[in-house]
Amino acid sequence: DEALILKRKAEDITSSLNGHCIYLVGMMGSGKTTVGKILSEVLGYSFIDSDKLVEQAVGVPSVAQIFKEYSEAFFRDNESKVLRDLSTMHRLVVATGGGAVIRPVNWKYMKQGMTVWLDVPLEALARRIAAVGTASRPLLHQEPGDPYTKVASSPLNQNDMPYS
């Protein structure tokens, strides 16, 4: 059972965290929210979805709507502000947005804690996103076509991520 494996691994690292936050990064659909909720429960940390905090800060109910009404740059600016604020806190598991890693300043904030990359094969990402559609994925929803093909052929693949 994957949840049990994750729980055991989390228990192994608890003592070395010293209350530092954990930032989960990865492509859209990589499971940051699912893993984050399990991890926070095991560690006794609070779970935060950074996209939800941006939505609340802007007063708009979805990332897709923020992209549509404002712009991706506006969203990214607000995402950086949220990550800056979170970097001063402790005992959080933060599921970041899939594009949070494209701004170097966000790495500065996330380095205040531990960053964990959820590496999921592109084929699995495509299947996951195809199952739920692209309406909540503004970078994929702009183009016509079926979700699986859009994800599988997306230039936003794991090899392009600026991880350090």
- CATH T-level fold name: Rossmann fold
Task: Please summarize the sheet with the most strands.
Answer: 4 strands, parallel
CATH superfamily: P-loop containing nucleotide triphosphate hydrolases
Helix content: 40-55%
CATH class descriptor: Alpha Beta
Pathway: Metabolic intermediate biosynthesis; chorismate biosynthesis; chorismate from D-erythrose 4-phosphate and phosphoenolpyruvate: step 5/7
InterPro entries: P-loop_NTPase (IPR027417), Shikimate/glucono_kinase (IPR031322), Shikimate_kinase/TSH1 (IPR000623), Shikimate_kinase_CS (IPR023000)
Enzyme class: transferase
Organism: Elaeis guineensis var. tenera
Describe this structure in words.
It is a single chain. The protein is of the alpha/beta class and 164 residues long. 53% of the residues lie in helices and 10% in strands. It is built from nine helices and four strands, in the order αβαβαααβαβααα. The protein has a four-stranded parallel beta sheet with strand order 2-3-1-4. It is globular. It starts with a helix and ends in a 12-residue tail after the last helix. 32% of the residues are buried.
Strand and helix layout:
Elements: H1 2-17, E1 22-25, H2 32-43, E2 46-49, H3 50-58, H4 63-69, H5 72-86, E3 92-95, H6 104-110, E4 114-117, H7 122-132, H8 138-141, H9 147-152
Parallel strand pairs: 1-3, 1-4, 2-3
Provide a short characterization of the protein structure:
By secondary structure, the chain is of the alpha/beta class. The chain has helices at residues 2-17, 32-43, 50-58, 63-69, 72-86, 104-110, 122-132, 138-141, 147-152, and strands at residues 22-25, 46-49, 92-95, 114-117. The chain has one domain (2-120): Rossmann fold, CATH 3.40.50.300.
